[in-house]
Every structure is written in structure tokens, then in C-alpha cells.
Amino acid sequence: MTRTIQQLFDLKGRAALVTGGSRGLGLQMAHALGEAGARIMLSSRKAADLEEAVAELQSAGIDARWIAADCAQEADIHRLADETLERMGDIDILVNNAGATWGAPAEDHPLEAWDKVMNLNVRGYFLLSQRIAKKSMIARQQGRIINIASIAGLGGNPPEMQTIAYNTSKGAVVNFTRALAGEWGRYGITVNAICPGFFPSKMTRGTLKRLGEDKLAEHAPLRRLGDDEDLKGITLLYASDAGKHITGQWLAVDGGVSVVTGG
After folding, report:
1. What pLDDT is recorded for position 1?
2. Is 125 a catalytic residue?
3. Alpha carbons 166 and 162: distance in angstroms, whole number
């Protein structure tokens, strides 16, 4: 029997793990998944931030809990995966969102900062995806993995940005998504990426202040930055049965910036 559109987007009975979920884009995506019926596990490094985020989700009627972990550290990643599985049962949806950036001219970019960005933005995505897939998704022949990349990973950089490690890492996430989708499709696991443009957040606060929110908005065909709703639709599409035949893809959610910059 063909399902209705409401049934295809329904996530009741499913469990989701969202890293970097205590604020910003991660918390927005957690809201989307929870509002569609999923049970949510949030993770980030700071317990206080997680407590506040979970309280916000619970006040909206969402079944949510948290685990503090540093997704740049292998031991923490394994602990996060294993404790999530112990507390929630099988994980149906993994959102790899934890990330870091660093601003410096390429010629002076510190190696330790390069490693910090790469370890969290790329290595962490791989290790957590591997752990969750091996312990939950592969045996059940189903799963949804959503990787947060960026339009910064789709092309070059204007000289004033100076975020070469971040851009490189997000370009790697796009191809990591495609490569993993190719391997794990036989297990019924879809792997897709979202490439946000500029959204006001703690990570982008310095760039927005330096370059100006109004100026950045003017570069977008839609003449606006992202808001607290703009990732909800694509997150739910990738996570639900409505997107069951989509894998290895990325979508820019950027107001059209990548159209005019050639990303």
C-alpha cells in the first residue's frame, strides 16, 4: 500500500544521534527530527550547554537526552556510540555535525590548528559513522547518515576568509559522503550531506561581524542569511522514508550563494 506524505516523513519509533547538537544548526536539526517523532540523543563537549538544549527540546514535547563527548577523540567517540546504543537501543539516524574552524593566512596556518580542524571535521565523522554502522545499522540493513559539510567545501575562498583548513575539511566531507554511500548502499544505509551557507551561530559570529551580515546577505540571490528553520526540511527528507532512494548526494542550503560563486 502506498504511504501518504505524512507517513513517509513520520519518524515515530526511530532514534537519532546528533553531534554538535547543543546549539545552532545541530539543535535546529534535532528539533526537526524530534518534531517528526524521533527520540533524540544530543552530544557536544559541554554538559551545561547540553542540559539547556535538552530542556528546550523537552519543553517542545520531544523525547531527548544527552551525552557529553569530544568527537575529536577516538575514545570519546567509542564511548558516545556505545552509551547511546545502550541507553536508546539501535540508532536509525546519525547526524555528524560537530565541527571546528580556524582563521589564519594559509602561509601562517598553525599545524596544530590544521590537525584540530581535520580531526573533528573529518576523522570524527568517519570514526563515529564506522562505530554506529558496525554496531547497529549494518546488521539491520538500514540506517540514515547525514553529514554536515558547507558551501565552503564546494569551491575556493575569497582572500578575506582565510579558513583553508575548514574549507579543505568540508570538501573532504562531501567526498567522504559520496564514497561511503557507494560502499554502504548494499546495507540499506543512505549517506547524504548538507552544505549550509551562512547561518548566524557561535562559529560564524566572528566572520559575520568582520564582513557584515548585511553585506553577506547581499551576495545571496535570496538576499538573506539562513535562519532557525532553513535546515529542517532537508534534514527530515534525508532522515525519513521520503528520502529512501536518495544517497551520496549533497545539497547547498545557502540562499543561492553557491549559484553565483560557482560552487
Report:
1. 87
2. no
3. 9
pLDDT for residue 260? 80
Cα separations in angstroms, 196 against 139, 213, 253 = 32, 16, 5
> Angle 79-84-88 (CA atoms, 0-180°, nearest 5)?
160
Report pLDDT for 81. Answer: 98
Q: Mean per-residue pLDDT for 39-50?
A: 97
Q: What angle do CA 2, 5, 3 make, to 5 degrees?
A: 15
According to DSSP, residue 14 is labeled: -
Catalytic residue of the set 125, 166, 187, 238: 166
The amino acid sitting at 164 is I
The letter for the amino acid at 155 is G
| d(C-alpha 173, C-alpha 153), whole Å | 8
Greater model confidence, 111 or 263? 111
